[in-house]
Amino acid sequence: MAIDLTTEQKELGKENFAQAAEGLTRRGFMKSLAIGAAGVVPASAALYFGYEKWKNGNPVKTALIGAGDEGGVLVGEHNPEFLQFVAVCDLRPSNRKRIFNGDANKTSIRKGFKKIYGADCEKDIKQYDDYDKFITMLTSGEGMHIEAVVIALPLHWHAKAAIDVMRAGQDRGKPIHVLCEKLMAWNITQCKQMIATAKDATAKRPKSSILSIGHQRHYSLLYAHATEVIHSGVLGDIHHIRALWHRNNAWPYVVDLNGPAQAARTQPFYRDGWYPAVLQEDYDALQGKVEKYGYKDVEQLIRWRLYNETGGGLMAELGSHQLDACSIFLGKVHPLSVTGVGGKYFYGPGHNDRDCEDHVFVTFEFPGKTYFADETRKAVKNKDDVVVVTYSSISTNQFEAYGECVMGSGGTMVVEKEESLMLYPEQAPGAKQGARATAVTVSGAGGGKPALEASSSGGGPSVASKSEAGPAGTGGPVSRGYREEMEDFAFCVRLWDGEKGYEKDKAGNYVQRLPRCHGEVAMADAILALSANLAMKTRKRISFEDHKKWFDSAEMNEVPDGDAKPRSQVDVT
Ligand SMILES: NC(=O)c1ccc[n+]([C@@H]2O[C@H](COP(=O)([O-])OP(=O)(O)OC[C@H]3O[C@@H](n4cnc5c(N)ncnc54)[C@H](O)[C@@H]3O)[C@@H](O)[C@H]2O)c1
Q1: Which one is predicted more confidently, 23 or 522?
Q2: pLDDT in tens, 387-429
């Protein structure tokens, strides 16, 4: 399969992409790349996404709830000129320390507050070990300066925390804006409640809030490049996108822990990131105290991804990212249907047991450009214009790792691990060389549309394309979008007029600037992931065309997953 290419084939694919992107940029088909003195270079993210730093400094005063793995990534990636962290809340003592000190590995993306704000920053960043005290603080004098909260909690907490925070801001008459990690929420009812709370501008709570969800691919220039190439038409007719995220967690594992008691309780059996060790420090501090937060024990707090009550399985954790990417490629259109199979085929008693599946295989049908007569989707014009998106996630085999592969009549584009873009032309009948050994350029084909032009690969890739990761062979590290997502969020916060809130103009567009992945966009991603879970569970094809109201945030009772609720303590109603 195309994603598992040799190093040489990958280099050639990057070179191909660089050449095609350069051709498209020169012809005005790509805005995410610019032509500079050094050739084609990525456009500035701020310019491309349309935000800027405000002139007089004043970063958005922000608190973080959830200082675990992802909280650490967001802290490590934030730009303190846009966001300034002033408080942090987490139940686990080990993670409260880690968020300040960062990871022991100096090259880790989780740098910690101290590296960013200085060794004595503990005096400026207040720490909370209790959620309720944190929420109460937001409406007290102590928390009045907090303008935004970043939420990186386990899935079943997203809705409650986002709603409590936004309500606190509305109650105090000064909004608190939320950037919440993906998946938006544990079910779609909760997504709709989050959106309703953000928009709430009643007399009692006169200030609406911004709700942004952390699907970072909306802010990745790499995905912007990929999307522009697809939309330029050089890949021809596209009817299939293959996305996958494969890992092998089936290796027996021995943890080097201090002390036999700890080892006995915490030993994971397999090298499995969803089954981390339970540290003695956290166990001692929290045993018997986590039930009020909706966890049955400390182990569930730490391994929350394994349980249906606290997580959403492979589709919520991994698949949601890639379905988001596929739908970005297709212009964020809603799909037509989903089917799937999956299950817990490997794990079980004595095998890092869990509720959630370890293999998923799902198929979505998306409408192609001519499927519907127009954007209202009321009439079908060409029922055969369908794009089939397949997604697989496997926990016991890492062949092909992760990425997306877009297959068109003119060529194939591979996006690998959020860091490389490769392009391979389809080969004309009778041509001698294999498609992967063919270099491309973009020509001005008939009708003003660009097209890929294949030629003999000759002397191999240029020096530029060999430099790692620059999406168009331009070198430099690739940002996965976290930093830009937070910068844009801060920019929206600074512009926000809470009274105007979510007003729309005559054309039905919001009059105020919202983050690219605001609540309604992210709810559609959650519908994709959670409906796939449902399709696998029921072994039935789910038609989204029969349930268009699922995508309408105002239709509170129209949801795919009924009234299922997570543990009652985290019920938002
Ligand atoms: N955007 C991405 O690429 C990406 C990647 C990984 C994780 N995530 C998301 O980030 C979120 C967090 O994931 P993670 O990997 O950091 O998990 P984690 O378990 O490492 O961290 C969660 C933290 O939340 C704390 N916590 C749990 N309940 C709490 C409560 N009620 N009050 C205060 N603290 C509480 C835990 O103690 C823990 O430190 C998840 O929603 C996950 O899906 C996103």
Answers
A1: 522
A2: 999 999 999 998 888 999 999 999 999 999 888 999 998 877 7
Q: What is the pLDDT of residue 69?
A: 97
CA 52 to each of CA 46, 49, 77, 116, 484: distance values in angstroms, whole numbers, following the listed order: 6, 9, 17, 21, 11
Angstrom distance (rounded) from CA 540 to CA 545: 15
Q: How far apart are the first and last CA of the chain?
A: 47
- In the reported structure, the alpha carbon of residue 517 is separated from the centroid of ligand 1 by a whole-number distance in angstroms of 19
* Local structure of 129: helix, strand or coil: coil
CA distance 522 to 527: 9
Query: For a substitution probing ligand 1, which of 64, 65, 69 has the most ligand atoms within 8 Å of its CB?
Result: 69
| Amino acid (one-letter) located at 217 | R
Does residue 77 have its Cβ closer than 6 Å to ligand 1? no
Measure the CA–CA gap between 28 and 112, rounded to whole angstroms. Answer: 41
C-alpha span between 410 and 229 (Å, rounded): 12
Does the beta carbon of 102 sit less than 6 angstroms from any atom of ligand 1? no
pLDDT of residue 427: 76
DSSP state of 318: I
CB 501 within 8 A of CB 208: yes
Average pLDDT, the chain: 88
Beta bridge partner(s), residue 372: 380
Q: H/E/C letters for each residue in 182-242?
A: CCCCCCHHHHHHHHHHHHCCCCCCCCCCCEEEECHHHHCHHHHHHHHHHHHCCCCCEEEEE
Nearest Cα neighbor of 213 from 489, 518, 523 is: 518
Cβ of 326: how many Cβ atoms within 10 Å?
A: 22
Give the pLDDT band (50/70/90) at residue 197.
very high
pLDDT of residue 553: 96
pLDDT of 166-177, one tens digit each? 999 988 989 999
Give the per-residue pLDDT at 442. Answer: 73
Question: Whole-angstrom Cα distance, residue 154 to residue 190?
Answer: 14
- Ligand 1: nearest atom to the Cα of 95: 39
| 138-157 CB burial, b ≥16 within 10 A, e <16 | bbeeebeebbbbbbbbbbbb
- In ligand 1, the atom with minimum distance to the C-alpha of 67 is 39
Find out whether 358 and 212 touch, Cβ atoms under 8 Å: no
Backbone angles phi, psi at 519, to 5 degrees: -50, -45
Q: Which residue has the higher pLDDT, 88 or 456?
A: 88
> Is the beta carbon of 70 within 6 A of some atom in ligand 1?
yes
Please name the residue that has the structure tokens 């988001």. 324
What tokens appear for 555 in the block?
A: 């239709």
Residue 462 has pLDDT above 50, yes or no: no
